[in-house]
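Worked example

This section walks through a single chain of length 219. The input is the sequence exactly as stored; nothing has been trimmed or padded.
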Amino acid sequence: MFLNTLATTPGWVTNLIASDTKFSLSTFFVLFLLIFVETAGILTGFIPGDAILITVGGFVGAHHNIFELVLVVIVFAIASFVGDGVNYWFGAYITKQFGKIPIIKKYVHSDLIEQIAKNFHPKRWLLFIVLGRFLPFIRVTVPLLAHRLGLAFVPYLRMSAFASLLWSMVMVSIGYFIGHLEISRGVLVGILIILAIIFIVILRVPKYREQIIQLFIRK
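Given that input, the structure is written out below as C-alpha cells.
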C-alpha cells in the first residue's frame, strides 16, 4: 500500500523519532526491525514501510544532520536487503508448507502473482526487483517469484542490494527535503496526505496496475 498510510503512520513510531536530538541506538534498532519484518514477512505488508522512511527522513531533515541522513539511509537499506534475503528462502518454505491456507494463499497465489509468473520476461529481473521495492502491491511477490522462477540466490541478492539502497535513498530523501524546509507539522501532514491520495488513486486503478505489470511480462 504505497504511501496510502503516510498520514496514518503509527503514533508510537512518530513519538519514537519526533525529537530535536539525534536518534539513539535503540531508535535505529527499532526502525531496522520494522523494515526488516515488513520486508521479510509474507503477511506483514500492513507495516507502512514507505511512510516510515519518509517520516523518518522528515525528522532527519528537521535535525539538519547530514551524517544522520546517511546513517538512516544505510540502516533502512540493510534492513530491506536482509529482509529480502530471508524472504527468498523463508517465503518459499512457507508457500510450500502452508500455501493452501486461505490467508496465505491470498498473498502467494493471487491472480496478479500467477499472471506475472506465467508470462514473466527473463530479461526483466532487475526492473522487476527495483520497481517491486517501490510498489507494495507486488513487493511481497518479488522474493517469492525469484525463488519460484529459478533466479539464483546470489544474482538476486545483488539486484536486491541495489534496489534496497535506491529505495532507501529516494524515500528518506523525499522526507528529508520536506523536513529541511522547516514547515509546520500541520502543513507537513497536509502535503503527505495529498501525496497519499495521488498515489492511492494511481495504484488502485486497474488500468495503471496492468500497465505496470506489462513491463515485466512477455508481449
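What to look for: The chain has a mean pLDDT of 78.
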